[in-house]
C-alpha cells in the first residue's frame, strides 16, 4: 500500500469512519449521548460517594447536596467530552471534505476537551490535567520508542521518581510548601516525618494524637508490644545530634520511621488482597496467611518503609558529618531513598510525582514573577494531552495504556472499537491491525447493541 503524507486528506465520509452504524450524524451523536451519560454517571457516582465516605463522619445535608451537584456536573463534563468529539469530527469532515492525520482525531479531541473542561468545577481541573498528562506522556514515549526516536532504560521510572521526589522534598525542607497548600506535601510529611519539614508550621494537637495511634494500631499482641518496648528502650539509648530536630535518638528515629511505614504498607496491601480474594479465601481458608504475607504483599511495605528508613538515615548522617542542617540535604537523601522504589516500580506513580513536581515548580515560579501567568493554562494543557490520548486511541492504540482504552470503550458504549479506520492505513501506521490487536489483548467486545433503533 502506498504511504501518503500525514497532512494529505483521505476522502472518507463520517458515515464510513465516525459512525458506521448509522447514516445520520445526529443519530450518531444522540446514541453516544445516551451511553456516555449513563457511563459517566456510574463513574462519578462511585468516585463522589467513596470520597464522601472516606471523610469518616456522618454526612450532613449540605454534604449530600454538594455530592449530588458534583456528580451531575462531572457527568455533564465527561458526557460533553464524548459527544462533542463525535460532533466535531463530523463538522470538520464537512468543512474539509475528508480527514487528515490532525483532523482525524487530534483537533476534534482538542476542541471537545476545551468545551467540556469549562463545564467541570475549577477545583477539579488541575487533578484532571495531572491525570491526562500522566497517561499521555507515557503514550508519547511509546510513540517515540516505536519510531526508534528514543530507547527505554532499565528502571527508568525509578530515576524519574527519585529526581521528582527530591525536587518536592527540597521545597519541603526549604519551607516553600507553606505558601502552596497541596496534599502531596501531607503525604511527604507522613513518609519522612514532620521533623524534616522546613518553615514555621504549627503542629496541631490532632497530628500528635494521630502519630501515636498509627504506632499502636500495628502492635497486635502483647508479646509483640513487649518486644517492641524493649527495642525502643535500646534504640533510644543512643545519641542524638544537636542539629537534628527529632526528640529521640537518631537510631530510634531511623528505625521507627522505617518500621511504621513498612507496617502501614503491609496493612494496606494485605487488606486490599483480602477484599479482592474473598471468594478464594471462603473456599480455602488455610490460604489466608500465605495470601497476606506473600512476596507481592510486601512490596508496598518494602517501598514505604525502605524509603523512610534510608531518607532518615542519610539525613541524620549528613547532619552529623557536616555539623549542620541544610535544605540541600534533602536531595541526596531522597535520591538514595528512591532505591526503595525498585521494590514497587510503578510507572503511574513515578509519572504522577513528575507532573506534580512540574506543576508546583511552575506555580512557584509564576508566583515569584519569573514566569508569566497564562490565563486558562490548565484548560489548554488538559486539552492538549487529552487530544494526544484520543489520537493514540484512533491511530495507534497499542501505544495507549490498556486501562485508558477500556475507559474510552466503556464511555462510548464500545463505539470506539467499531469506528472504521481501514482508510487510514495509507499513513503507514497499520492502524486497522493495531485496533484488532488491541481489541484482542483488552478483550473488549465489538458486538455492540445500539439502543433506540440504529442509535
From TrEMBL:
One of its GO terms (cellular component) is endomembrane system. Coiled coil: none annotated. Belongs to the TMEM135 family. It is a multi-pass membrane protein. It is found in: Endomembrane system. Residues 11-144 form the Transmembrane protein 135 N-terminal domain. It holds the Pfam family TMEM135_C_rich. The chain crosses the membrane at residues 30-53, 65-89, 95-119, 153-172, 251-276, 297-315, 335-355, 376-395. This is Transmembrane protein 135 N-terminal domain-containing protein. Its main location: membrane. Keywords: Membrane, Transmembrane, Transmembrane helix. It comes from the Eukaryota.
Amino acid at each position: 500500500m502506498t504511504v501518503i503524507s500525514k497532512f494529505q486528506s483521505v476522502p472518507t465520509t463520517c458515515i464510513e469512519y465516525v459512525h458506521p452504524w448509522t447514516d445520520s450524524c445526529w443519530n450518531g451523536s444522540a446514541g453516544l449521548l445516551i451511553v456516555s451519560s449513563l457511563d459517566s454517571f456510574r463513574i462519578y457516582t462511585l468516585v463522589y460517594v467513596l470520597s464522601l465516605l472516606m471523610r469518616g463522619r456522618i454526612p450532613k445535608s449540605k454534604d449530600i447536596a454538594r455530592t449530588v451537584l458534583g456528580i451531575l456536573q462531572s457527568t455533564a463534563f465527561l458526557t460533553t467530552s464524548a459527544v462533542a468529539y463525535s460532533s466535531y469530527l463530523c463538522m470538520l469532515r464537512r468543512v474539509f471534505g475528508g480527514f487528515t492525520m490532525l483532523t482525524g482525531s487530534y483537533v476534534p479531541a482538542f476542541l471537545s476537551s476545551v468545551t467540556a473542561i469549562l463545564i467541570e468545577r475549577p477545583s477539579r481541573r488541575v487533578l484532571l490535567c495531572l491525570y491526562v498528562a500522566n497517561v499521555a506522556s507515557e503514550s508519547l514515549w511509546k510513540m517515540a520508542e516505536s519510531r526508534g526516536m528514543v530507547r527505554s532504560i532499565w528502571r527508568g521510572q525509578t530515576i524519574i521518581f527519585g529526581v521528582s521526589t527530591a525536587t518536592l522534598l527540597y521545597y519541603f525542607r526549604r519551607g516553600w510548601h507553606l505558601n502552596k497548600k497541596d496534599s502531596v506535601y501531607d503525604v511527604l510529611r507522613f513518609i519522612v516525618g514532620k521533623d524534616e519539614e522546613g518553615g514555621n508550621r504549627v503542629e496541631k494537637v490532632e497530628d500528635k494524637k494521630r502519630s501515636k495511634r498509627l504506632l499502636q494500631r500495628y502492635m497486635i499482641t502483647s508479646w509483640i508490644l513487649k518486644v517492641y518496648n524493649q527495642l525502643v528502650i535500646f534504640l533510644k539509648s543512643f545519641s542524638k545530634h544537636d542539629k537534628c530536630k527529632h526528640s529521640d535518638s537518631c537510631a530510634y528515629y531511623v528505625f521507627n520511621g522505617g518500621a511504621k511505614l513498612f507496617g502501614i504498607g503491609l496493612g494496606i496491601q494485605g487488606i486490599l488482597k483480602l477484599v479482592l480474594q474473598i471468594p478464594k479465601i471462603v473456599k480455602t481458608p488455610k490460604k489466608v496467611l500465605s495470601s497476606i504475607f506473600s512476596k507481592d504483599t510486601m512490596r508496598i511495605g518494602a517501598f514505604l518503609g525502605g524509603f523512610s528508613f534510608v531518607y532518615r538515615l542519610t539525613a541524620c548522617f549528613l547532619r552529623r558529618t557536616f555539623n549542620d542542617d541544610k535544605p540541600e540535604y534533602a536531595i541526596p537523601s531522597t535520591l538514595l531513598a528512591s532505591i526503595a522504589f525498585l521494590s514497587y516500580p510503578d510507572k503511574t506513580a513515578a509519572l504522577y510525582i513528575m507532573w506534580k513536581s512540574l506543576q508546583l515548580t511552575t506555580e512557584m515560579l509564576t508566583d515569584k514573577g519569573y514566569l508569566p501567568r497564562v490565563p486558562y493554562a490548565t484548560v489548554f494543557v488538559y486539552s492538549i494531552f487529552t487530544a494526544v490520548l484520543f489520537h493514540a486511541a484512533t491511530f495507534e492504540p497499542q501505544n495507549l495504556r490498556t486501562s485508558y482504552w477500556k475507559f474510552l470503550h466503556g464511555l462510548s458504549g464500545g463505539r470506539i472499537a467499531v469506528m472504521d479506520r481501514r482508510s487510514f492505513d495509507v499513513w503507514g501506521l497499520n492502524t486497522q491491525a493495531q485496533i484488532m490487536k488491541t481489541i484482542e489483548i483488552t478483550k473488549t467486545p465489538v458486538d455492540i447493541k445500539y439502543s433506540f433503533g440504529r442509535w
